[in-house]
Amino acid sequence: MFYRECGVLKETYAKDMAIFPIPLDRWGLGVMLVLAFVVIPFTASDYWLSSIMLPFYCFSLAALGLNFLTGYAGQVSIGHAAFMAVGAYSSLILYGRYGVPLPLSIFGGGIFASAAGTIFGIPSLRIKGFYLAVSTLAAQFIIEWVLTHWQWVSGGVFGTIDAPDMYIFGWIIDTPVKKYYLVLCVLTLLTVFGKNLVRGQLGRNWTAIRDMDVAAEIIGVSLFRNKLIAFAVSSFYAGVAGSLITFTYYLAANIEEFNLFLSFHLLGMIIIGGMGTVLGSFFGAGFMTLLPIFINQTLLTIMERVPSDIRANSEAIVFGGLIVFFLIVEPYGMARLWQTIKEKMRLWPFPY
Amino acid sequence: MTFFFEVLISGLLVGVMYSLVAMGFALIYKASGVFNFAQGDMSLLAGLALVGFLTVMPLWLALLCTFAVMTILAYGTVFIIFRPLVARPPLILFMAAIGLSFLIQGIGQAIWGTDAKGLNIGIPEISFEISGIYLNTFDLTFGGVATALVAGLVWFFQKTRTGRALRAVADDHEAALSVGIPLLRAWAVTWVIAGIVATVAGVAWGSRLGVQFSLSLIALKALPVLILGGIDSILGAILAGLLIGASENLAEVFIGPYVGGGIQTFFPYLVALIVLWFKPYGMFGKEIIERV
């Protein structure tokens, strides 16, 4: 009754093209933004900000990037952690060795990652489906090898570069709250950009390719261009996410953090969150980052005396079980669940 | 030249193991369309179970019990996890398999422990020399076992009633259903076979490297083999396994020193990528012809 399109009169073209035509959606978004920008930084403890919110935001960004590629353009990638690694290393090198300003190095990391992503996206022009998925694993292994074996990149010590102190225009970013704002600003900026990207021509092209690439090509969507742009944009997001998480959370670029399991986690995020939805990336990242912490804490309180390896194993069991359970109950992800709630809201509180 | 052959042969023997794991993938993919990422974890589980049973019983009984564990796993997987997911998109099934791999790892290690364990099933490891090439009995025995396994599978699929039913299911689910083949049971049998293949691979790798978590990573070695041969081709998996095993070993020994070593991790993927560029469905994979 309160949440519906009815009564929303679109008098101009601008209103017709609005992202959120329904007033309640806009208010909801406003509330979320106020929550993220004002309430959380002033109420949450440092532990919450630095160990939960920061990785959550960074992984949301990476998942959003992967969602462009896999959810919208239909090209499965299981080498995305490697692109995060490229972003992390190149932004640290830009900032630490060449003194490029911080915002520029973060986005520079994204650009380097996007170049790497485009190169590894080339096979997608010939290969499809699981063949492509396995081919993207090549990115994971080759990039890992390059980062550990090229002395110039890593500086020689186990492929690790320490993150220097962060300054923006001489203003140091050291406390969790400042880091939180840095990550949140980049996330907001890129989310708005991404949401508009997938609403526009490019997003339509990607969806067409996902649904059937042969048909898309026939109606004049260039596969070459759009697939490679999908890889570029997607790995740009991954690179920025990798550089942010390294600067604020890991504090050192280390290839171990960007291993294959992170790639699977990212894929899991978008599948559980909902493929082909921007919102789903956030749900999925929340689920996959918060759940292990939650499980661990719960097990810690239930089984205090149990040795840690059994706890680690029960964590794996619960985690795997929940993934399977979720896929069985809601195969189209949490975003679909949200969609269902919205459908119900149209009529609420009346039965029909 | 002798050195070349030595490297080649040791590569081929490793390749046999890759083939085994890749074959497990191919069997399940062909029959049920699931890209079974948990294949490596099934090897891990089999290894863990065998080590666990060996401490309390003789080898033959331990092997039987391991087989029982794999059978329970296969039926459980098909009837609990994949039955509700029938006719879902392949990517969802893939994700379910990743979830399954967490489950198997967790359960296996919770029961039998996370520490690395040695596995000795009494096959001697004696090196000997034939015309200047060093071989050892352990590798040869497992090469033999793997060959026998493949021959047995070929016989099973070609000659037995169950085998024919499984091939029918792999060919066309609906047609198989319509002639009265129980689909889910056929899938379960396929998973059991994949479990046996995984057990052999798990025992072979486990007695070499010890049974521990890293055993599940042999799946990653098998993936380039799989796409090189063609995801749904068993013959492809075997040939590609040998090809990859030999080529990565040769590359590591002869090219590796020039670029800093360690190229074994990604060289198979490079080979697979180059071949796939020319044959997008692998060497023997079924080509999908798309029409609008």
Describe this structure in words.
The complex is a heterodimer of chains A (352) and B (292). With 352 residues, chain A is mainly alpha-helical. Chain A has helices at residues 13-16, 23-43, 46-72, 80-98, 102-121, 129-149, 151-154, 176-199, 201-211, 213-218, 223-250, 260-273, 278-302, 308-329, 334-347; strands at 160-162, 166-168, 171-173, 252-254. Chain A is 74% helix and 3% strand. Chain A is globular. Chain B has a single domain (2-278), classed as Orthogonal Bundle (ABC transporter involved in vitamin B12 uptake, BtuC). Chain B is 72% helix and 3% strand. In chain B, a hairpin with a 2-residue loop joins strand 1 (127-130) and strand 2. In chain B, helix 3 crosses helix 8. Chain B starts with a helix and ends in a 14-residue tail after the last helix. Classes of the chains: A mainly alpha (352), B mainly alpha (292). Chains A and B meet through helix 6, helix 10, helix 12 and helix 14 of A and helix 4, helix 9 and helix 12 of B.
Question: How would you summarize the topology of this molecule?
Answer:
The complex is a heterodimer of chains A (352) and B (292).
Chain A: H1 13-16, H2 23-43, H3 46-72, H4 80-98, H5 102-121, H6 129-149, H7 151-154, E1 160-162, E2 166-168, E3 171-173, H8 176-199, H9 201-211, H10 213-218, H11 223-250, E4 252-254, H12 260-273, H13 278-302, H14 308-329, H15 334-347
Antiparallel strand pairs in A: 1-4, 2-3
Chain B: H1 2-32, H2 39-54, H3 59-82, H4 90-112, E1 127-130, E2 133-136, H5 137-159, H6 161-171, H7 173-178, H8 183-209, H9 218-229, H10 234-254, H11 256-259, H12 267-278
Antiparallel strand pairs in B: 1-2
